[in-house]
């Protein structure tokens, strides 16, 4: 099993190619597993065609994978020319992984199976995380989810932790003391969690993890390259190029929260321009609701578009859509991408309203010299960060390892 700090590996979402060379057994096994993950189920003949491996090699590999209980045979398919075929598929009980999202407003734990289906979920909410309470809780729920598998507990391959790089960042906006901010910003969260559990743990920035989930289980099946936007307590994002996650020099590609909304002003002592985060984050919607004497947690559920919350929400939608349109135009000028995917931790109805207003705002932008991208809604939803975290150990252990798509921070 690879070290938890080693690079997690990219699913090849195009046509995975194998090799018949000696010494490539593990790589070819992972290519076959990835082909089954992408296509759900395939007979041996189609596996050979898609991977470029010989029929004999496919036969040997699938026999080993079936013996290891990583794949299962499905019912024979009849009615075609020639012999009936027997599709092969991933065994849901073949492996398990745990995903943890640590956010500024809550934490979430997911247990997923080998097909990336959620088996169990647990979530807690808070105004801001208390390290003395949250760190033991993270380890406690990791152990509870693993041990709850009973005889299959040994098939848990690890946990993936998704959190902001600087959980205490923007402390003045959040109303935190400098001491609270420094505690989290100076903490190595990965090391703190690893010290409390014997389960291998890997790390990804929260919105990057969400982008992984969308790449593997959402729009990534249809779109080759896209800018990913995730609207959470603070807005963020990720970047997919040619079906591979691009993280940048510091693992921060797609960090739209920090994008300035306007040029800096000349002169010593001039105020710094506001960032996209100040307009397009659910934190801002929380503040609007709270200013009206309403429950700010409504920003994350179906109440947001209902009375008496709707008026504040509509005002937020107006400013957030303009900020997001600005971010999309700016990104398009640099990246020239044809597609943008937007998701978030809000209700699906609020996401749809935000998509519609952002499309309208984009139509009013100056696109001279540029090609406007198409804006799509994400398919994964509010669990994207935790789900992407859980996918990290699965892909580190079972995906073809020739392309690194994420490195531990």
TrEMBL record:
Q: Which GO terms describe its molecular function?
A: N-acylmannosamine kinase activity
A Gene Ontology biological process annotation?
A: N-acetylneuraminate catabolic process
Return the annotated region ranges for Disordered. 1-20
Q: Where on the tree of life does the source sit, at the highest rank?
A: Bacteria
Q: Could you tell me which Pfam families the record lists for this protein?
A: ROK
- In Swiss-Prot or TrEMBL terms, this protein is called ROK family transcriptional regulator
Q: Which species is listed as the source?
A: Variovorax beijingensis
């Amino acid at each position: 099993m690879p070290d938890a700090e080693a690079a997690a590996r990219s699913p090849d979402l195009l046509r995975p190619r194998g090799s018949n060379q000696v010494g490539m057994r593990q790589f070819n096994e992972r290519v076959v597993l990835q082909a089954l993950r992408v296509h759900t189920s395939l007979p041996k003949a189609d596996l050979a065609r898609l991977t470029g491996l010989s029929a004999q090699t496919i036969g040997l590999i699938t026999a080993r994978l079936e013996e290891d209980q990583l794949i299962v045979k499905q019912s024979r398919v009849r009615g075609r020319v020639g012999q009936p075929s027997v599709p092969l598929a991933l065994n849901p009980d073949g492996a398990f992984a745990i995903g943890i999202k640590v956010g500024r407003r809550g934490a979430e734990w997911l247990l997923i199976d080998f097909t990336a289906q959620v088996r169990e979920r647990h979530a807690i909410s808070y105004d801001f995380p208390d390290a003395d309470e949250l760190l033991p809780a993270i380890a406690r729920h990791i152990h509870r989810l693993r041990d709850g598998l009973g005889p299959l507990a040994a098939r848990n391959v690890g946990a993936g932790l998704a959190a902001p790089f600087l959980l205490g960042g923007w402390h003045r906006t959040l109303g935190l003391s400098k001491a609270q901010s420094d505690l989290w910003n100076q903490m190595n969260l990965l090391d703190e969690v690893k010290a409390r559990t014997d389960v291998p743990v890997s790390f990804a920035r929260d919105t990057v993890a969400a982008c992984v989930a969308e790449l593997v289980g959402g729009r990534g099946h249809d779109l080759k390259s896209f800018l990913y936007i995730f609207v959470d307590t603070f807005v963020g994002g990720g970047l997919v190029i040619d079906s591979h996650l691009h993280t940048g020099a510091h693992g921060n590609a797609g960090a739209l929260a920090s994008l300035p909304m306007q040029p800096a002003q000349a002169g010593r002592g001039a105020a710094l321009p506001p960032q996209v985060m100040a307009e397009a984050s659910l934190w801002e919607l929380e503040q609007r609701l709270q200013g009206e004497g309403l429950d700010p947690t409504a920003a994350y559920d179906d109440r947001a578009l209902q009375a008496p919350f709707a008026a504040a929400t509509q005002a937020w939608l107006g400013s957030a859509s303009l900020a997001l349109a600005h971010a999309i135009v700016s990104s398009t000028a640099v990246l020239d991408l044809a597609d943008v995917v937007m998701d978030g931790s809000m209700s699906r109805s609020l996401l749809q309203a935000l998509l519609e207003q952002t499309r309208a705002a984009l139509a009013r932008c100056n696109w001279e010299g540029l090609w406007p991208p198409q804006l799509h809604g994400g398919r994964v939803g509010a669990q994207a960060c935790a789900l992407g975290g859980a996918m990290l150990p699965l892909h580190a252990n079972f995906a073809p390892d020739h392309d690194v798509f994420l490195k531990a921070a």
